Amino acid sequence: MNRKVSLEKAARFFWGLVLLTLPVTSFRFFPFLGKHTYVRPLAFYPLALLYLVLAWRLWRKEIKLPWSNALLPLILFFIFAIFATGAGALLAPLPMRGNEYWGRAIRAFITFGIGLSFFIATLWMHRDLDDVHHSLKWLYAGLVLSLLWVGVQAIALHTPLLTKAQVSGWQKLFSVRGLTKLKRVSGFAFEASWLAGQIVTLYIPWLVASLLLRFRLTKFVWLEPLLLLGSLTALVLTYSRGGLLIGIIATGLTLLVSGRKAISRTFSWFFHPRAATLKTLAMRIILVLLIIAISWAGVSFLAHQKYISRLWTVKANSLSDYFVKTNAGGRITYLWAEMQVFLAHPILGTGLGSSGFYLYRYFPDWSLYNNPEIAVQLSPSSSLYPNAKNLYFRLLGETGIIGFAIFSSFLFAILAQIGEFLKREKMQWVGIAGLSSFIAIAIYFLMQDSFAMADLWINFGIIAGLAAAWEHKESSRL
User: Fold this and answer.
1) 296: domain range?
2) What's the structural domain count of the chain?
3) Model confidence over 333-384: pLDDT tens digits?
4) How many helices (H) and strands (E) does the chain have?
């Protein structure tokens, strides 16, 4: 019995380390990966140790293999991807810059396996709300560390107290990359947009849900509001246009769908206080002024950054010229080319990981002029391998409409489980966090195409794990 308890504690500890280390996306010491592979989650190391403990407990018959209805589409996608990749080999694309077809295919399956391993582990480690509480404590601890490092970076980028080179050197001790050229904080992530993605897809959903339903993880009632304020500040400092847009849309839609009671309660508290005293009136005025001041400061700060302001100040002769001058020319070019790859191979695609062999031939004419990112890609001295930077387009190009449909069924399965949680009072805060995370991730997939981004699988795994446990309890009662 003591050994069983010890193994369970070990599993929970290693799982906590997984969540604590999630912010480090590009760990320097990651073997068997090329220098252009930037998705290297540090969390994979404690995840491997966690699987060793879980496998030992499984062999001792202390636990069972996890299962969820949402897991079936991922397994089917994996099987179909093998078939599509085998068929894609018959197209025999020429090697490009040291990359061969099966080499890219194996790398693609490895990255999918990494993402799937995070999802299954999360599914395995969440059987009830107590497991969620345990996870959130470690998740918030990782967020605190990330925000502290963001603060160090902000000091180096915006004050003379620390030099950029010094902090960049510190970051290279654990990351494949230091600070970027622009004054954008990146936290422990590879780049600023990745940090923004972590904030809006992983952390903010739980913080928003806790505020909407007044749920507090600890006795410190100020913890969630403070973490939310810090997260929003970090999000602003990333200057990530996509991250800001995702945060606004995801939070706004979540409020419309499931936050109406909280909004009504807030308005009632403000306009119809129970005790209309001078003190309560002063508190409300101060709160409104504080919200206005913080919002105005954030908007003003962003408006003075050229990377943001060029969205409405740039002078362009055409739509394509606008995309190029707003640093979106490369991304639009990849999307256009990937769609042409799909149209050329609509049923089975070209094989997982292989669309980069075909993208260059489909670049539109306008992208070849005055487009710095594409110029770097097409340089004879370049060793880069192009990618779609959009998971939906990548799935269409590499696995065809069938693979895309199978993977989409996974997303709909998660959404259905979230809908069930929103109907149940005790699980509503999980449902709200799940909904916000689902919207954010669904939009974020429009901006990145890697399966190995660990933070994108965690909240989905929590939802799937709780749903599976709930279904098991319901079936046991029958």
Assistant:
1) 273-304
2) 2
3) 999 999 999 999 999 999 999 999 999 999 988 888 878 888 888 888 888 8
4) 20, 0
Q: Cβ atoms within 10 A of the Cβ of 211, count?
A: 17
Q: What is the pLDDT of residue 262?
A: 61
Which amino acid is it at 421?
F
Side-chain half-sphere exposure of 233, counting CA atoms within 13 A: 17
Q: What is the pLDDT of residues 300-315, one digit of tens each?
A: 766 666 767 777 778 8
**Is the same domain home to 298 and 434?**
no
DSSP assignment of 404-469 equals: HHHHHHHHHHHHHHHHHHHHSGGGHHHHHHHHHHHHHHHHHTTT---S--THHHHHHHHHHHHHHH
Its pTM stands at 0.90
292 plus 439 within the same structural domain: no
| Residue ending a domain, choose from 284, 304, 324 | 304
**Are 216 and 279 within one domain?**
no
User: What whole-number distance in Å separates Cα of residue 399 and Cα of residue 408?
Assistant: 12
Q: 198 and 289, same structural domain?
A: no
pLDDT of residue 472: 67
Low-confidence ranges of the chain (pLDDT < 50): none
Q: Are both 91 and 116 inside the same structural domain?
A: yes
